[in-house]
Amino acid sequence: MRATVMYAAGDVRIENVPDARLIEPTDALVRVTRACICGSDLWPYKAMEQSEAGVIMGHEAIGVVEEVGKDVHNLKRGDLVVMPFAWSDGTCVFCHEGLNTACVHGGFFGNAEIAGAQAEAVRVPLADGTLFVLPGGKDDALLPSLLTLSDVMGTGHHAAVAARVHPEKSVAVVGDGAVGLCGVIAARRLGAEQVIIMGRHPDRIALAKEFGATDVVSERGEEAIERVRELTNGFGVHSVLECVGTEQSMLTAISIARPGGAVGRVGVPQDEAMPASQPSFYNNITVSGGPAPVRAYIDELLPDILEGRIEPGRVFDRITNLDGVPEGYRAMNEREALKVMIKP
Ligand SMILES: [Zn+2]
Prior knowledge:
Elements: E1 2-8, E2 11-16, E3 28-36, H1 42-47, E4 55-56, E5 61-68, E6 80-83, E7 86-87, H2 93-96, E8 107-108, E9 121-124, H3 127-130, E10 132-133, H4 143-147, H5 152-162, E11 170-174, H6 178-189, E12 194-198, H7 202-210, E13 215-217, H8 221-231, E14 237-242, H9 247-255, E15 257-265, H10 277-282, E16 286-289, H11 294-306, E17 318-320, H12 325-333, E18 340-342
Parallel strand pairs: 11-12, 11-14, 12-13, 14-15, 15-16, 17-18
Antiparallel strand pairs: 1-2, 1-4, 3-5, 3-9, 3-18, 5-6, 6-10, 7-8
Bound molecules: zinc ion.
């Protein structure tokens, strides 16, 4: 089959690789209908060390179940499924608590251990717990939004939950990538009254406004912090969704939270230490978040997509086949494209 293989920073190739196949009796084989390139794929794209074997990339997909192992009971051939970016058994203590990304038997797609989904097909471990079967007969027009349930919409929602977004409260979203924009949707969906998007890319800002952002802060650093305070009676916001993961973005996030506020972080941290320890302490700021248990959120978010109340699929501004994937990485890395959808 054909798949996207990354060998080093900037080196993404489409290659013929051995077909994905069942290995464990709890596996499913999924034919990929739609996949996409994630902002987090850009971290290895910038920094991955040379690898002889390469890594089959991709952790977001919708597909059709082609084959299931003998211990898979909740899925059958032909089911249309969402593949969350992490696999999980659905039965352990953490899965029961809705934190599937801490599953004691789980893991993540698209690394040296397990092949990813930017490919014609993908092997899904613990398929009963991992895959979410979509209701049949859905319009293809919904596929982009349904695809976001595998990561970015669930991740934006997780940031909002971790940041304790509540009705009538103020929210700031740090980062205007796909997760940040989904964070705007999530904050409004949870009833936030004021949603400040922090970013400067005109197309992304326009989409954020359509998603419900009420204010835009395009400044950076100290100026950005000042501007958010001006917009919030001098105090800062109740909730900050940190959707980038750099030292600077985390520093900004803590600096714009009001005393007693919360920061929900979903940007993959690029540093060992967390900045702004003293401001977060003296202002009683809760810092929470981590890998989003998107599997657990699908039940809650799916009806809003099916009934058209939210359209997170609008974050996709390009579609390509597998041949166009290396160019898709380049375009996202250079911020020409917001998020690239792949139709293998
Ligand atoms: Zn589990």
